[in-house]
Design goal:
Number of domains: 2
Radius of gyration: 23 Å
Structural class: alpha/beta
CATH superfamily of the largest domain: P-loop containing nucleotide triphosphate hydrolases
Distance between the termini: 61 Å
Number of helices: 12
Order of helices and strands: HHHHHEHEHHEHEHHEH
């Protein structure tokens, strides 16, 4: 009777991890050997684990990563110029804490998007908020936001994301609204929150694609400063896996 009251109270307090742990442990014979502090400590730890898993699930859901990618699963056998030491550095939270940009370039199919999603997955597991956006969809969203009056609110939301992933940027030359929006996004995040950018276009060609020289200088100055520049090469991995 007392156990049922305890479970009811734990659930009422929304301590669902403790409730499940309590149920499991009172049915295990070896739990009788635990002291009261040990028993309580274990169910408290289970509550902590439950909340951490719940938060991770929520972070990954909100991140909208299109691929279930992990840094641990990266294939280094395919010759594409991927440095293991660089990936090892990116597997820690130092680059996020120091707001470093990651620029991933290379031809289609070499794994830029996978690597970007793996970085996003890693950041979420470290407890950071993440948002993945394809660049064309980003510019469409911002254009619609201008029409309905939510443009500034949308920019503010993007600025607050702790890791923003912009996939397939610079596929086509930017028009005035696009380059101005990109400048606002990069300026808002510079030295505050890191950004991961993927592009099929080499970095040396970004300036003419952005267009207006003054704006291009401002954007690239912020993007290139203190950033990881990963240039992938080789044939498409998709072709080799057929």
């Amino acid at each position: 009777m007392l156990n049922q009251q305890t479970l009811t109270t734990l659930n009422a307090l929304k301590l669902f991890g403790m409730a499940k742990s309590f149920t499991d442990k009172i049915t295990q014979p070896n739990s009788a050997d635990l002291s009261h502090p040990e028993f309580f400590g274990l169910i408290v730890q289970d509550e902590k684990t439950y909340r951490e898993n719940l938060r991770l699930k929520r972070l990954l859901l909100n991140a909208k990563l299109p691929q279930p990618a992990c840094l641990e699963d990266i294939d280094y056998k395919h010759p594409r110029g991927l440095n293991k030491q660089t990936i090892l550095e990116l597997s820690s939270q130092d680059w996020i804490a120091h707001h470093r940009t990651v620029l991933l370039t290379g031809p289609t199919g070499v794994g830029k998007s996978y690597l970007a999603c793996a970085l996003g997955n890693c950041a979420a597991r470290l407890g950071y908020t993440v948002l993945y956006l394809r660049a064309p969809r980003l510019f469409e969203t911002l254009l619609q936001a201008k029409a309905d009056g939510s443009h500034l609110k949308t920019l503010s939301r993007l600025a607050k994301v702790q890791l923003l992933i912009l996939d397939d940027l610079f596929l086509t030359p930017l028009d005035d609204p696009q380059r101005n929006d990109l400048l606002e996004i990069i300026e808002d995040r510079y030295r505050k929150n890191p950004t991961v950018i993927t592009s099929q276009c080499p970095i040396k060609n970004w300036h003419p694609i952005i267009g207006e020289p003054t704006v291009a200088d401002a954007i690239l100055d912020r993007l290139l400063h203190h950033s990881y520049k990963i240039e992938l090469k080789g044939e498409s991995i998709r072709q080799t896996k057929k």
